[in-house]
Amino acid sequence: MFSSRERPALPNEVLMVAESQWIFTESELLQTPSILDGLSPEKERENRGKGVNFIFQVGIMLKLPQVTLATASVLLHRFFVRHSMVEAPGRPAFHYYSMAATSIFLATKIEEDCRKMKELVVACVRVAQKDPRKYVDEQDKEYWRWKDNILHNEDVLLEALCFDLTLEPPYKVLFEYLNYFGENENRRLRNSAWAFINDSCVSTLCLQFSSRAIAASALYAAAKHCHTEILDDEDGRPWWEAIGMDLKTIKQACNCLAAVYEHVQVKNGRDVSIHERTPEDGDESTAKTRARHPQAMRGEQSDTIDHLGDGGMEAVEGSRKRTRSPSETQDMSTVNGESHGKGATNGTPKASPPDDGRDHGGDKRRRVTNGETRMNGVNEDQPTATAATTSLQEAHTADEISEEGEVEA
Fold first, then answer.
1. Residue 318 pLDDT > 80, yes or no?
2. Is 230 helix (H, G, I), strand (E, B) or coil?
3. N or C: which end of the chain has fewer CB within 10 A?
4. What Å distances lie between residue 326 and 139, 218, 277, CA to CA?
5. Nearest to 289 by CA among 299, 302, 278
6. Is the overall model pTM greater than 0.70, yes or no?
7. Any idea what the Cα angle at residue 286 is, between residues 199 and 245, rounded to 5°?
């Protein structure tokens, strides 16, 4: 499955170094200029979210692609790492709406989706005034105020970014992952992962994790949401190792993304939590996003048989032929007076119980058919096979199941 697809290429080393300069810890994000100037961390996150929401609404009016809007969101978050939203003596405050408009203006140049200055200013005025049909004249003071702020703040934004305009959108990385795993036609999984990346723009996830980690966490969250399992590679490695990602990092990013869905306002005014956090130290199989590769399972089964030795091979072959000792056959045939063939002591078959729909003790034999182990009339006090034969039968059952590819993590 994976041999015919190209593995996602590793990012450029220069790009990785440039992106690592904008990765901060959670404690460092509590020391931003706005928070140091007295703004609470909750209020700062709220203002960041309002600025990103402003970017999305203006982008919808200008019909900008989502990649451009995500780039503008990253520029806005990086700007407020070095500048404050609070006015101080001798230093003006930077409003999140004004800087959001400037981020859009710069992002359209980076992604080469340029729009006319007039169109951008008119859209900003309409969104800021909350009137999508407002008529904006070029000679209006409001129009020139927005235009002058955008042109002036562009230099301030470039200086704060140190002219570092090289970005790797997580949408492109997600598309590479979906193609590599053969899930590009899974519309529900693809749309869910795309939506998770859209929602991550509101948070500071771009300041804590790389774009590849964000794409992997969106895929992980979408796989859990859609109950989808991604197949391991031919070497038996889980899908996150196949793309060079660490599972703990993915879970940390998912938990940061889950914070976006906390305290959602409902109609009756109550705050509810609709997120689901992932234990960062839990077992990788609990998420059920991984499906074991059949070839790897056959390799593990062959290692188990080699560990058993020649005697184990002979026992497995014997279990496949359903061979039993005379004492086992006699024990199974004399239980509850039920006879099968010539299992009775006198060699005379006994009558079968009447077929009246009632339970007459049932069959105590263990039947292995098509890789499934069935027990009719379970009697734990009187086992029907020895421990060695039972373990080998279970090993044979696991072998047949692995050939059908029905094993999941």
1. no
2. strand
3. N
4. 104, 60, 57
5. 278
6. no
7. 60
The structure tokens listed for 274 are 């609709």
Query: Other CB atoms closer than 10 Å to residue 338's CB: what's the count?
Result: 21
Q: Cα(93)–Cα(379) distance, rounded to whole angstroms?
A: 79
Strand partners, 264: 272
Q: Which two tokens stand for residue 249?
A: 């990092």
- In this predicted structure, the answer to whether residue 35 has a pLDDT above a threshold of 60 is yes
Q: Cβ distance 181 to 215 under 8 Å? A: no
pLDDT in tens, 295-310: 555 554 455 445 445 5
**Which residues, in sequence order, are CB contacts of 357 under 8 Å at separation 6+?**
none
Per-residue DSSP letter, 30 = T
Q: How confident is the model at residue 90 (pLDDT cuts 50, 70, 90)?
A: confident
Q: Supply the pLDDT for residue 29.
A: 92
Return the residue matching tokens 């170094």. 17
Q: What are residue 98's DSSP bridge partners?
A: none
Distance CA 82, CA 346 (A): 95
Strand ranges inside 99-154, DSSP E: none
Compute how many other C-beta atoms are within 10 angstroms of the C-beta atom of residue 280: 13
Tokens of 199: 């929602």
> What is the full DSSP assignment across 337-400?
G---TT-STTSPPPPPPP-SSS--S----EEEETTEEEESS--TTS-SS-HHHHHHHHHHHHHH
**Pairing status of strand 290-291 against strand 366-369:** unpaired
Residue type, 12: N
In angstroms, the Cα distances linking 301 to 312, 348, 386 are 13, 43, 22
Terminal-to-terminal C-alpha distance of the chain:
19
